[in-house]
Batch of 2 targets.
Target 1
Amino acid sequence: MDEKNTLNAAEKELIQTLRDELEQLENGELTAEDNAKIHALYDRALEEGVLCRDAFGLHPMVTDYQTAIIVATEIGVMRGAILGVLLNGMVSQGVLPAADVEQEFGKDVAVIVHGLARIKKLYEKNPIVESENFRQLLLSFAEDMRVILIVIASRVCVMRNIKESENDEARRHVATEAAYLYAPLAHKLGLYKLKSELEDLSLKYLEHDAYYHIKEKLNATKRSRDAYIERFIQPIDEKLKAAGLKFHMKGRTKSIHSIWQKMKKQHCPFEGVYDLFAIRIILDSPREREKLDCWQVFSIITDMYQPNPKRMRDWLSIPKSNGYESLHITVLGPEGKWVEVQIRTERMDEVAERGLAAHWRYKGVKGGEADVEAWLQNIRAALEAGDDLQLMDQFKMDLYEDEVFVFTPKGDLFKLPQGATVLDFAYAIHTKVGNKCTGGRIGGKMVTLRHVLQSGEQVEIMTHVNQVPKQDWLTVAKTGRARSKIRQALKEMAATQATFAKEELERKFKNRKIDVEEATLMHTMTRLGYRIVTDFYAALANGDLEINQVLDAYVMQQRYERGELPSQQQTQSAENFQLQRYNDQERQHKNDVMVIDQGLSGIDFTLAKCCRPVYGDQVFGFLTAGGGVKIHRIDCPNATSLRQRYGYRIINARWAGKGGTQYGVTLRVVGQDDLGIVNNITSIISKEEKIQLRSISIDSHDGLFSGTLTILLDDTSRLKQLIQKLEGVKGVKGVTRL
């Protein structure tokens, strides 16, 4: 048995503690029989040595139990989800056959295990969600919403445990995906506490200096901040007690990630962020008095402190689609500081902390489970429509969107993302209404289907029997549902037109008494530049290709095949053929890594100007909108943003042979403005073999100089040697690569 995969003493003690915690859960639904079966499976897996540590050295038995605890205590989903977490690894390692899960633990658990097994296979192939497996990931999500909750809990567990890991590259990958996919998912499902934790930990691993700068500032200002909160809440506490309300209050500091985002957005230092905290008032109110008590607190506070009407948020009257209910106001407190106050009940607070899962405990809650199920239904509809890249863009766009509330003429309420248009509203009502939409009427005035909706508007959709979806509607629609339905309609229309074009072509062949051979027709399509049959007929349908042009090309192809005309293709001599050989490392990676070679054909790639990669740098590829690939350094200033926003476009890449290519590099040199220092620098460069100085710019002031050098060289090893020599020049204080 591999010692790396066995449990050490500390891990054994931790697992026993976690097992005890699971068995003692107040609302635990695991039976003694469930626990006995789980223990037996894990003991067998340990004996067989099939539980392998991950890239961070974490043992799966430990992380499984930790994830189960998060699912149970921090999300609040019970038996089915807990067993799903614990059985997933047993099924994937063959300790428990997948077919036996339903018989042993029930159909509910089997469905969850199936969804998790699907995701596990994706991550075994590649630890990052990319275009080829994103569709499968969404299918797993759409199968059962508890699968999403478990995967979020699993990612939180991993992020908490990798602080000490030496595998920095894997940690950056996991942190990037947590930021651009799983934190937004947690937000969508109302798991605000876990969402903030994922964002903070991602920032900690991706932008270490920024994270600890803000953390140190928060620690330094904690005493004064706590004192201010105490001064602010004391008079409120007295007034609320005098009104006979049962409540408790707490101050909540903004997350480090939230502060960092505000600093970047407002281009200000930490001291320039004024709303660092919020006050939360949590009422102990019976269900029938919840709104009444919340509005009473609102009245008391706004009588004491001046409110900012632009910063008021009423999610009591109409909760968010994930079930979030609260009343937010911002008031001017002592010393002229703006303070956000959140007013909610105990039930609302649990929904805010646990999100979707709390709805299984509280019946009759508005929104929540039903709305998230509708969101998942939109994912299913989008999956049917195809177009993976569009689907991924829209999926991420839908996650963080704020909402607008719009009414039909009959008073029915629809929730749509901020920025939704009349066309989105039409498709939200029904697909047939969307396909025939010509515009809308709001407040008695006609508006176009591009009109952006505002909360509270009452919208009447106008339709026409002859209207059909247009290609530019995809730029008008903002919701995933509308865009997927438009694409589906366009595909159906294109298929119908292509069928007509095919029938017309067949009639023309018959009129000219030409017998059609399928193989010859396929060669004709290729000769005309079409590799896909549907594209060929679509070109005929929309007029990009004329039928007579096809007929002439077909007759010409027939003559080639009969030998009446010489072939235009030249046969390559065997002497000129070169077999491409791979070493073991190349063979291992060639199926999942783009190899960067200046002689590469079929792929349009360029080196990014923002970081100017050189042979030897760790790099990745980024698929551009035009279909080409830009090669960036792993430490490129834009790398984090690209991975967070467009992770599915990231391509693993590595260098092939140098091939004699030289790469441009810009260096920044800083030092004392001594006589002859520039000559010394240029002299060193000129003496280096295979290094060319292309340009030099020097700026001198106050006895110091700073300059930029642009050079051409072969690889990073020469670059490191050159930097070391330049740093050795007397008077040079530093050399950095830009």
Note: Residues 208-242 form the longest helix (35 residues).
Target 2
Amino acid sequence: MYKRGSGISTNTLIVVLAVVLALFYNQTFFSNLTTTYPIIWNNVGFLASVAVVLVAAFVFLFSLISHRKTIKPIAIVFLLISSITAYFMDSYNIIIDDQMLQNALLTDTAEILDLISLKMLLYFLFLGIVPAIIVYHIPIRALPLKSALYGRLQLLLGSLILAAILILAFSSHYATFFREHKTLRFYTNPTFYIYSTIKYATQVIETEKAVIQPIGEDAHIPARNPHRELIVFVLGETARADRFSLNGYPRETNPLLKNDNVISFSNVSACGTSTAVSVPCIFSIYDRSKHSDAKAQSTENVLDILNRSGVNVLWRDNNSSSKGVALRVPYESYKSPDKNPVCDDECRDEGMLDGLQEYIDSHAGEDMFIVLHQMGNHGPAYYKRYPKSFEKFTPACETSQLEECSKEEIDNAYDNAILYTDYFLSRVIALLKNNSAAFETGMLYVSDHGESLGENGLYLHGLPYFLAPDTQTQIPVIMWFGENYDEIDNESLRLKRNNSYSHDNLFHTILGLMEVQSEVYNNDMDIVHGPD
């Protein structure tokens, strides 16, 4: 019926696995915990109890999902994945939630390679591969079915009872832990990424079942003057509003744009803190409070409305993708040298302008809306985002391992990338100026989200919105219009530059600029034509 012999029981391995995960894979959780509850005499017992409760939670989890024949593969998988999540949490103080998973799954190979470092490989080796090999070679002792079930029941009940006793013993501490500091639980590894994975998978299943719903079916452009609209929408990446000298940043990061009569809006908030959330939201009819990935993927967006109205829409991309926005309009990727003529260490944003004049000339009789999706300031390898000739601020951080650089070096690399965006936008404006005789021309630059650069120990982006600092949510919006653009008074528009706006306004602003009439258009939400 079963084999007796040497080895450890499944329950013992479960307990060992739980202890190891709690002690060695949750550095960020305990660091944030002790910041909230300092290591003083009144907190020592509570802090110790949290460690034990965490182990008990892991024991309960693995007791539910494993038995003798599955405990090894389950343990190995969790050790390998948890080693990588531990690295990102420990290095950048990020949270692995459903939006972060979505962003990771939608990124491309080049962006993934930017994240690989020696430290990451060491984490994977010593917290992933080595423990996995040890688990693989541990013999598991077989037990009679009755004994195995009884032992498992004891483990399940024991972990629950132990956790309950400790929570009751330190109830005053746990009351604040659960009510006022619930975000601390987001840093537990692996329980929170397990929860996030289930949540994300559920969203994907719902999205795949959805049928795309049309909106703005009444949209049309009425007869008007012979000039056609030519709008270039530059979709920025990871740019912070407070790093643009146009918005008061003391460093000169916009030496070219300051001479181009642009209007820079200084108080605009993003829809999300990641590309995968913000990009679909920017073009969606839903505002941030109602937006979801399922709604974005199952509902037409503003590009569909423009296309239906007779506007020639083109999306050129030097980033990973359009995140589903440009699925029904012409799309061109400029991520490789066979398409992008401006490539050195990586393909540059300015390469998206190649052949664009010829494209415009071939559609001279049409309204045109062109999206240029930048690589911009995508981190953590900011030093790769600009040619060496734009390295004005030195010394610059030249590694993806940001904690190895000083704050000054990180800032320098990031600001150099902003400087390159300034150059790119000035080239877009120059292109538009050359077409102002045939079109009413305009440029609208909007970043998808901001970035943390080490403030309060935070790096990169992607924190849950309610936790995210302003550095991740406050984004730049810059507009430029040709002199012959009807009904646009630059000076009146400039008076709005400090008004509070968000990505929610862009759907209606785009329709207004393209003079599209539809029941879905809300003039009050239009930054350009709406109220002061």
Note: The chain has a mean pLDDT of 92.
